Amino acid sequence: MADRVADLAAAETRALVRTVAGLLTTDGQAGVLEAIERAAQACAATIGLAAIAGVINWAGEQVPARAGCPREPTHTGRLVGRRPRTIRTLLGLLGISRGYYHCGSCQHAGGSGGFAPLDVVLGVTGSSLSPGLARAAALAGAEMPYAKGFTFIGTVTRQLVFGTQDTRSIHAHVVPDPAEYRGDAHCHP
User: Fold this and answer.
1) Which residue among 11, 119, 176, 181 is least crowded, i.e. fewest CB within 10 A of its CB?
2) Cβ distance 115 to 101 under 8 Å?
3) Are residues 89 and 56 in the same domain?
4) End-to-end CA gap in the chain
5) Shared domain check, 69 and 51
6) pTM for this entry
7) Cα 81 from Cα 70, distance rounded (Å)
8) Cα-based torsion angle of the residue sequence 100, 101, 106, 110 in order, rounded to the nearest 10 degrees
């Protein structure tokens, strides 16, 4: 896996260097630095996402026949198969496959009974957003109007954040004291 990511990184870096060289040698173009930054950001995101996806999908293949139920520690769920899932991250869309379990006890008690332990480990249970993207959206929302915050996140990360489930995830990451993240926690506005 590391060799595949290294090969991808080398190819992406070569493409980035060619892109930057092409932008800098184009006659009459002014203000190309933003285009260079965007190209570098896309390159880094592609490499990072490939590395993360490889490791997470490896972890998703390590599925025992039984796993502890996250709702009730005394319950055990049985593996019913592997299920795909897409998570929106700061780097882009992350497609994973992970073990999915049913807890018979929770099902009989009126709950869904279904769970994926890897979702719990990753912190994405009940959300299509990674914790990092959810926190970024929450911070943006705390500093500017809601719609403008979503536009800002889309511009900076190139990721779209929308939907009721995303909104719940974002609200779960709202920072009670924004000063804590500005580095001036000792100051009070």
Assistant:
1) 176
2) yes
3) no
4) 49
5) no
6) 0.75
7) 18
8) 50
